[in-house]
Amino acid sequence: MSLLTPQALSPQPGVQVSLNQLIDLRHHARELQLFSTRAKHSPLSGLHHSKLRGRGVDFDQVRVYQPGDDVRSIDWRVTARSQVPHTKVFHEERERPIYLIVEQSRRLFFGSSLMFKSVLAAHAASLIGWATLGHNDRIGGLVFGGAQQHEVKPRRSKQSLLQLLNRLTQANQALHVDAQVDPDDFSLALRRAREVLRPGSLAIVLCDERALSDSAEQQLSLLARHTDLLLLPLSDPLDHDLPASGLLRFNQRETELELDTHNSELRLAYRQIAQTRSARWKLLAQKLGIPLMPLNTQSPALQQLREHLQALRPRKSR
User: What is the pLDDT of residue 202?
Assistant: First the structure.
């Protein structure tokens, strides 16, 4: 297994992304089938066609009142004018905001397989963004990392998506080993999402698996009260298992750490910490009743997203 190192930057694929790469992914977005025109075949039908919340309805027409209609929807002006009870009819919005919350921090500036986690996050966000635009939904989002936040308001336009992808590319290319670390950046990003997202929106979170703190978990729970959520935590094989490679030295600025990976107890403790981390994400998703689609650096984002969506797709009854 070859370890990608930050020393070889732009020339090496999988370390950084370019805007052209993210734009080219539009040709593959239709393979995702993230949203289907027929709800019963959509793997996210429970999210995209959820119960009406807040302003998630549009006025359709006024018609004669029928037994069983909600009396609160009676149009009293038309009723008084015609002397026949009439009611307002509403339908669910055909499009709604899709909001991508994408991490680009030093936590993701690492990879031991096909690509860095930061690149995986950018690829997945781009694919979802193009699929959303193809479904005629509004797309926007927030790119966060360190002390930086870059926000693009959801709009149903290619320009809005390109603006988001450009922000994502800039943040990705600015990553380096000594980039600033803010342990609360994920919580702050989620808090900002709560401030700007209206009821009925769909927030898709792409962050490092290690970013789930007590504060972030609380913010996710609060966000889930008025928006739908989709969680995509990112990891690398070395986040879960240490290879028995002998003495490993890690340097960060003036700090140096040595690990003897031949120590089986050390490797076991490391693995157990990772398992606890993964279990926490699963427990949170179960508690909130939302899909969990973990991604790793071992295979392309498109392949993993397709596999997750296929698993979520409702099975036909015999």
Answer: 94
* pTM for this predicted structure: 0.80
Q: Predicted confidence band at 96 (pLDDT cuts at 50, 70, 90)?
A: confident
- Overall average pLDDT of the 123-139 stretch: 94
Q: Which domains does the chain have, with CATH numbers?
A: 19-40+95-312 (3.40.50.410), 57-92 (no CATH)
Closest by Cα among 296, 265, 294 to 278: 294
3-state secondary structure string across the chain: CCCCCCCCCCCCECCECCHHHHHHCHHHHCCCCCCCCCHHHCCCHHHHCCCCCCCCEEEEEEEECCCCCCHHHECHHHHHHHCCCEEEEEEECCCCEEEEEEECCHHHCCCCCCCCHHHHHHHHHHHHHHHHHHCCCEEEEEEEECCEEEEEEEECCHHHHHHHHHHHHHHHHCCCCCCCCCCCHHHHHHHHHHHHCCCCCEEEEEEEHHHCCHHHHHHHHHHCCCCEEEEEEEECHHHHCCCCCCEEEEEECCEEEEEECCCHHHHHHHHHHHHHHHHHHHHHHHHHCCCECCEECCCCHHHHHHHHHHHHCCCCCC
- Whether the CB-CB separation of 57 and 93 falls below 8 Å is answered with yes
CA atoms within 13 A on the CB side of 180: 9
73-91 mean pLDDT: 83
pLDDT bin (cut points 50, 70, 90) of residue 59 is low
CB 237 within 8 A of CB 262: no
> Which pair of structure tokens corresponds to residue 298?
């071992």
- The average pLDDT across 242-260 equals 79
Banded model confidence at residue 84, pLDDT cuts 50, 70, 90: confident
- Predicted pLDDT of residue 38: 42
